[in-house]
Amino acid sequence: MLHAEIRQTPERPISRAFGLVFPKPEDMAKLSPADRRLGSLLAAESGVGNVTIPDRETAPAGQAKSADVVMGATELGEIIGIDLARLLDGRMLVQGTSGAGKSWTLRRLIEQTHGRVQQIIIDPEGEFKSIAERYGHFHVEAHKLDTAALALLGARIRAHRLSVLIDMSELDREGQLQAIAAFFESLINAPRAHWHPCLVFVDEAHLFAPFGGQSTAATSVRKAAIGAVTDLMSRGRKRGLCGILATQRLARMAKSVVSEMHNFVVGLNTLDLDIRRAAETIGWDASKAFDRLPMLEPGDFVAVGPAFSRSPAVLRVGGVETHHRGARPALSAPDDIDAEEAAQLLDLEALMEASAEDDEIRDENALIPSLKAIRAFIRDPAFAVAGRIYAELKAIAPSGARVSDMPAGLQSTAEDIAAGLALLDQFGALEFMGDGEDRAARIEKGMLACL
Ligand SMILES: Nc1ncnc2c1ncn2[C@@H]1O[C@H](COP(=O)(O)OP(=O)(O)OP(=O)(O)O)[C@@H](O)[C@H]1O
Ligand SMILES: [Mg+2]
């Protein structure tokens, strides 16, 4: 495609056959300032003439179409719409510090797209219940389902195109990761007949796809969850799944997830690292980002990407119809309570007594399961004789010894030997052969390999 007129001069012929192409001015406007300068120099050099390249912010605006979802408006009152089809293709990431208005923005998008496309809302904080109450999303309490049940649920949601709210607020962090892995995998693996367009809203998405060591969960659990979220973002597209993710920090999100995004909505940022990452993401130079991102008000965002009717645009996200629970509680002075009354209200003594009683159990419960098993083994009354049996059998391995010979050989009673053997057997340490008088025991094959 040749957008610009090329003046061919006899002294400097330019062959059209090589397809010399200059982008449209508004496309040039999307380049970084350095590339833009280079572009205009090249344009002048090759005889295209003086190309006036508009500043990124004043790039010609595409008109918001009536089919667009209205996201908000610029300071000048220009409506910023989202093209749903393009959104489905390019997904979206909403980023900003705590209080920037991310959850509000998700709520706005949920409300505005309700009834036009299936919606799945992943709610780690239990913030979106009012949406379900108002619009009839089926409310699922994830902690009441195990992973197998969540996988089945995912398949059914796809099959029946149900809009649902998955409330994960009662799950611990590891439980949330396990739940998301099982649920997303089932959404992605749904049969082709069920590949309908569906928006998947995920608030606090870094919890489910944490970068590197940002999560305390076991590596395998974390990997499975990151894999599932990445899959949702990449393989999900052809399957009609469109992730709309919100996170406080880009640095906390797995890179594999961020790299799948084409639409970004970036709000208030205050930390240096966040501002730099945000600037890279929206294509601003650092000085502009440092000037402007920390000054944004809650609800103000920079929107960049093919889904927006005008991009990049600084916009104020529009209002919401349902009650938003993200606000911090209003300031109010606490009641004046003296120490005696406080102790009574807290019932501190009873709490301390109960804690002392719990100490023993708590210590035991805090142990990792393998350690608990070893403790149980050592505490068993038959531990000593089991140790002696094991030592004798180890000496003659891989041969074994007749059980009936053991009491004499170990100067022990038949009863003690039986208890010792039972204990070793319980831990899979022995193999038994034969019956009755001829019954013999030897050290189990797998154990032998470690001797
Ligand atoms: N578009 C908006 N219009 C008006 N007020 C807004 C808007 N966006 C956010 N706010 C105000 O800012 C508050 C915080 O917004 P929100 O709960 O969405 O923040 P957040 O970015 O999700 O924060 P966190 O990361 O802590 O969850 C809201 O309760 C609301 O009062
Ligand atoms: Mg929030």
TrEMBL record:
SMART domains per the UniProt record, alphabetical: AAA
Task: Enumerate the Pfam families for this protein.
Answer: DUF87 (PF01935)
Q: What is the lineage of its organism?
A: Bacteria, Pseudomonadati, Pseudomonadota, Alphaproteobacteria, Hyphomicrobiales
Q: Which InterPro entries match?
A: AAA+_ATPase, HerA-like, HerA_central, P-loop_NTPase
Check the record and name the CDD domains matching this protein.
TrwB_TraG_TraD_VirD4
Task: Pinpoint the AAA+ ATPase domain residues.
Answer: 88-251
Protein name as it appears in the record: DUF87 domain-containing protein
